[in-house]
Design a protein that fits this description.
Layout lengths: L1 E5 L3 H12 L3 E6 L10 E5 L5 E5 L5 E2 L3 H9 L4 H4 E4 L2 E3 L5 E3 L7 H8 L6 H16 L10 H4 L5 H16 L8 H13 L7 E4 L3 H4 L1 H10 L3 E4 L2 E8 L2 E7 L13 E4 L3 H6 L1
Parallel strand pairs: 1-2, 1-13, 2-10
Antiparallel strand pairs: 3-4, 5-9, 6-9, 7-8, 11-12
């Protein structure tokens, strides 16, 4: 198929790599001038004209992200050198919080809760009760629930030291908006998966070097088309396929027409608008 992917963040690039591997003719349209979306590096010019290359936020992978690690390998990234693997450790600068020891499962999680620094017995009990409840329900909950709703019974210390930082870094979304079902999947895979699934994988390189740039090079080498700085403004059915209206306009060329299918890899807001 001739396939248009709208959005060049990690989701759009992942879809483009998979579709290209499957033999489709892929075109990626990204409104900004760099791929990577919310997880990429950016350049900041300071007041003294110093130029800094920084990530646009803290993004943490965990060992349970097996498909992400597979995708990194596909585009030529060696995870062993690009990522630092350490046991799950979520501590404040004062040393309070939770750290998973090097023990077999599930003893590592139980020991981490039991030894959590700065937590009262009530704090630890609230997390253990919640975890037992999640396991009894097979890590399922109503699809409309947010993480905040899921964790209503947890004490403030547990929310601040464990749930909030894990949710923000793993899902890039605050508790009040993050999907509880997606978060439960992360917890299930991290806590009940094979050894190493709960480990934190911290990038040794900036976020653009970790995946977006290698994915761009891989896609171009395999015949895909990337249109950066091209915003898709509307979609139009065309003879059983699709045509895109873009800014700047590409309608005069075949670049924006004749697509058999579309993938929207955008934010929810942009997807609704399209």
């Amino acid at each position: 198929m001739k396939l248009a992917i709208i959005g060049g963040g990690w989701a759009g690039l992942a879809a483009a790599v998979e579709a290209t591997q499957a033999g489709h003719q892929v075109s990626v349209f990204e409104a900004s001038h760099a791929c990577g979306g919310r997880a990429r590096a950016t350049t900041l010019r300071m007041g003294d004209d110093t130029v800094l290359r920084v990530d646009n936020g803290q993004h943490i992978l965990i060992g349970a992200y097996r498909q992400t690690l597979r995708l990194l390998q596909v585009v030529g990234v060696q995870a062993e050198s690009a990522l630092l693997q350490i046991p799950m450790t979520l501590l404040t600068p004062q040393g309070q919080g939770i750290r998973f020891p090097a023990l077999p499962r599930p003893l590592d999680a139980l020991a981490a809760v039991a030894l959590a620094k700065g937590w009262s017995l009530a704090d630890k009990g609230s997390l253990l009760r919640a975890a037992i409840g999640w396991q009894r329900r097979h890590f399922q909950c109503p699809n409309a629930w947010t993480v905040a709703q899921l964790c209503q019974g947890l004490r403030p210390r547990v929310l601040a030291d464990l749930i909030a930082p894990l949710c923000l870094s793993a899902l890039n979304t605050p508790l009040e908006r993050a999907s509880a079902q997606v978060f439960l999947r992360v917890l299930h895979d991290a806590l009940l998966g094979p050894s190493g699934c709960s480990c934190l994988l911290l990038p040794r390189v900036d976020l653009s070097q970790l995946f977006p740039q290698p994915a761009q090079r891989w896609l171009l080498a395999h015949g895909a088309q990337l249109y950066l700085g091209v915003a898709v403004e509307s979609l139009h059915p065309q003879g059983g396929g699709w045509q895109l209206a873009t800014r700047p306009g590409l309608a005069a060329t075949t670049a924006a027409s004749g697509f058999d299918a579309l993938i929207l890899a955008t934010s929810a807001h942009a997807g609704v608008r399209l």
